[in-house]
């Protein structure tokens, strides 16, 4: 039996946990991370409870109250929104436990020998701010109207700004401000498109966006949405913020920033492709070209990096573009594959970037030219990096392999009818080799070869299990989805198969 107001609980429980941590911060102290992680395990369980009903072809819709005409506060779970909310929330739970030792480490580095009361204030601050991320991700996924979606999207930007400003790396205040300004840039275009939508159909409800079909203003509305969301996706030429923000935030939220950027792909599908598939055709080829340019440019930019965190940061630019390429092809197979790849990528990037954070956490070194031979001292960390590299490169048995196969099948279906798309598809497949190159070259530079003398210290070893076990659980989920893709594909097909 599904609990009453299940979807509201998935947002409300983290909010209540954040308030509890804030109010009791001096009493609960180091337990804050366990409270945050426990609350997210519970909400992940709630979303799992919703899955059987959605598998039966039903939608779960909860309406709470009407704010204004055309603006109803409600949440909706279907075959498209549920897997996004579930995997995003699961990653938030995983990284909450990963953060328990890492947040303490960041506080020691930034604030030095703080007195016990100040230390508790900083530590609990991290976790009550952290809980805004699952609220934002699940809210964006389940929002039933554009205004609510906009609110949750901007909540993510605000959470990222404060976590960057308080717990980031070099020049954290400047980089946090850069992130906020780019978020504001995106929000202006998104809000303008939302208001223009309301002037045409008299509603902000996502379920009524189909009324824009054939409207002469639809191309302008789509353009505004895409500009705003391209900034979130870091698609060339809107990628400028990504290398800075993704390299300088606290590494324990790296996987969350990958979701933050990638979730714009879900929004494009929800707001534009599903309700306005025919009208969206005009954006198809330009979107594919931009995605291909971003894939290649992002790969070469990654190869030029010597900072291990910037390698992971720049690789995000390239990897996000794969999903966009699938969406741009606009066959139901490519769109389903693109969404599956988005979910696979955020899992792979969680492991890839978090492992980079482990290396920095243990060694205090970011320059790969000063690394080498760490597999001897940190075998589990080396194993995790190789897993992350395999997931990002699309190796079986991980879900990214299956997702790429499905996505490129759909792209080549379109390519058989359009020679330009065929060329883009071939170049896109070849770009995967660049991903293999930069992910595995780091393995050689960092983990193999002679061990550097300054790593002979006995303190150089694998991290606590609270950091490695959560990442292994993500790899396990990816393997399950890679071997049994119907778990995700059947859900996505309920919505996207109508294309």
What can you see in these coordinates?
The protein has 499 residues and is mainly alpha-helical. The protein has a domain at 280-499. 73% of the residues lie in helices and 3% in strands. It is built from 19 helices and two strands. A two-stranded antiparallel ribbon has the order 1-2. The radius of gyration is 22 Å and the shape is globular. 55% of the residues are buried.
Task: Provide a quick synopsis of the model.
The protein has a domain at 280-499. Helices cover 73% and strands 3% of the residues.
How many strands? 2
Strand residues, percent: under 5%
What value does the average pLDDT take?
88
Give helix and strand order, one letter per element, not per position: HHHEEHHHHHHHHHHHHHHHH
Q: Walk across the major sheet and give the strand order.
A: 1-2
- Compute the separation of the termini in Å: 32 Å
Radius of gyration: 22 Å
Shape: globular
Helix content: over 70%
Low-confidence stretches: none
What is the number of helical segments per DSSP (H or I, 4+ residues)? 19
Secondary structure class reads mainly alpha
Largest sheet: 2 strands, antiparallel
